[in-house]
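Sequence in, structure out. Go.
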Amino acid sequence: MDKNLLVIPSSESFEERIKHDISRRGLSTGDRYRGCSEVAHMLGVSASTGHRIMVRLAEKGYLVRKQGVGTLVGPRFARPDHRTMDSIYLCMPRLNQRLGLSLDDLIYGIHNALPDAVVTTTLFPRADPLPVFQRILAQNGGNMVGLGMILVPREIQELVARSGVPAVLLGTPHKTVRGLVSIDIDGYEMGRLLARFLAGRGHRRFALVLRENPAAGDMKLMRGFSEVLGQAGFACNALEFVHCDMEETLIREEVRDLLARPDAPTALVSYAFPSVEAGINAASHALELVDGEDFEWVSTLAAAYPHPKRSPLRCMYTPARIGGIFGTILAQVAQGRRPESEHTFLPVALREDAEALNPGKTPKWNTPLAKGGSG
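Output:
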């Protein structure tokens, strides 16, 4: 199949994609379906074209459009026969650093759920990932292809969501992406736990160092962290957000400027990426500051980094269990069955040895605050 056939401007191909979307989501006659604008976005066409396609499907009995109710799945819709998933492509960017997630454990978990599928790890260039995904999507003909995605950009998420190919994202979908099943850390609870932990260690000023374009999971982290500080009576300026590219040199410059201020935060929260750690270490060395004494850096969790050493938190699921959940959900999607939830959140908890972070260090920031203390 030619990769250029991924998007064919014919009404029949668009109609088949809508019917496949209904099957993939496990919908049946009488279930509510997407509206015209959402269908147009999914197909990548104008609103008027999306409207015409849905009218044709309604005329054929595949959809029912009711004024005041919306669009429903029609009586003539027949679910396709289930196909066997032959291949799963586990796709991630080609990085200069290791993932915190054990891919062997992840693949083992997938095989437990889908024992007959061949799992292939596929690395794509960060600069131009589109051709890799076009080739994979073009294979979804007689053989059922599944996609597992780690750290993929927004445009790829949107492409895969529109394609109808069974796919699961390890991470949080971009806010513009609809219909993509995902597994990620519970960012909101993670933010709340980190705020309580750091406030309990005596910090009065905090900074979240996040990527330049925050993902949905980042927003939940920010909300959870902010809520706890607000409920504890901290001043509005006790928490600040720093957004930048996660390259080592940029992290070093941002953190150096941050820590050099007279009112510098004493608690930094960021990702567990090696580039972040190297940047923070370089910045503190240039300012002759000691991590664990002059300031404290802790890392967040992510589905691809579920157990980083620099975090006081831990994911309550092992990588093998995450892989099993991943494979089970992918199998459900492939068989046209709707998962219990489109977004599965992995639970987090405070590590038993969290207080032992930075052993042997004597912090210079304030002693632990009483509950309700303010900055």
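Check: The first helix runs from residue 11 to 24. The first strand starts at residue 63 and ends at 66.
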